[in-house]
Design a protein that fits this description.
Layout: H1 5-12, E1 25-30, E2 37-44, E3 51-58, H2 62-75, H3 80-83, H4 88-94, H5 103-123, H6 134-141, E4 145-146, E5 151-152, E6 159-165, E7 168-173, H7 182-194, E8 201-205
Parallel strand pairs: 7-8
Antiparallel strand pairs: 1-2, 2-3, 4-5, 6-7
The chain binds FE2/S2 (inorganic) cluster.
Length: about 210
């Protein structure tokens, strides 16, 4: 597998690595695709809402460590509003790219940063806890990467329909029966959605 010089540099010499004592917020997320985990810690200036300090711990692969290193570097010193705009794509581009099958590793790092910011905002009354809705389902589907091309299944127009009524999620996907990733994608969707207590049943048609 070909990695860029920057990926190798951030993997061998990760920036902002380590557990933070008394963080103002943190988040731990796991990737259903590989079972790996990342934690992001934040110290936030409560006057101007800038990220004063940030660190991470990764139990992931080289791509995940490199992306977490890059994304924490990008986020440091930014306001929460600015940091909310940082995407996995931005971090991946800053690393001069990742192989398509490794894109989910960068999504995991970027999502964990966003969850840590959201946790800070909820804890400080800057944001209400969002209600579970069709939007929540769509946001989760945007995190699911089709490994062959390294793009999410929503951007690839593989999601034809999303419904949510009385705890039942209904998703229609546009994936041919001979597609080798079909089963993985269905499993990943279930793992992403089953964590919500509002979800009682998930039906995936394809
Ligand atoms: Fe798990 Fe990369 S394979 S984070």
């Amino acid at each position: 597998m070909q990695y860029s010089e920057k990926v190798l540099d951030h993997f061998m010499h990760p920036r902002n690595i380590g557990k933070m004592e008394n963080p103002d917020a943190s988040a731990t997320e796991g990737s259903p695709a590989c079972g790996d985990q990342v934690t992001v810690y934040l110290k936030v200036d409560d006057k101007d809402l800038t990220i004063k300090d940030i660190s991470f711990l990764s139990y992931g692969c080289a791509s995940n460590i490199a992306t977490a290193s890059m994304i924490t570097d990008i986020a440091k010193g930014k306001t929460l509003e600015e940091a909310k705009k940082i995407t996995w794509r931005e971090a991946m581009e800053a690393l001069d790219g990742l192989p398509p099958v490794k894109v989910h590793c960068s999504v995991l790092a970027a999502d964990t940063l966003q969850t840590a910011i959201s946790n800070y905002e909820i804890a400080h009354g800057l944001k209400e806890v969002p209600n579970f809705s069709k939007e929540t389902i769509l946001d989760e589907l945007k995190k699911i990467i089709y490994p062959q091309v390294g793009e999410d299944i929503v951007s690839l127009k593989m999601v034809k329909y999303v419904g949510f009524t009385d705890g039942e999620v209904l998703i229609d996907l546009n994936i041919p029966s001979f597609d080798q990733w079909r089963g993985n994608i269905a499993d990943e969707i279930r793992e992403h959605l089953e964590k919500y207590p509002e979800v009682k049943d998930i039906q995936i048609n394809m």
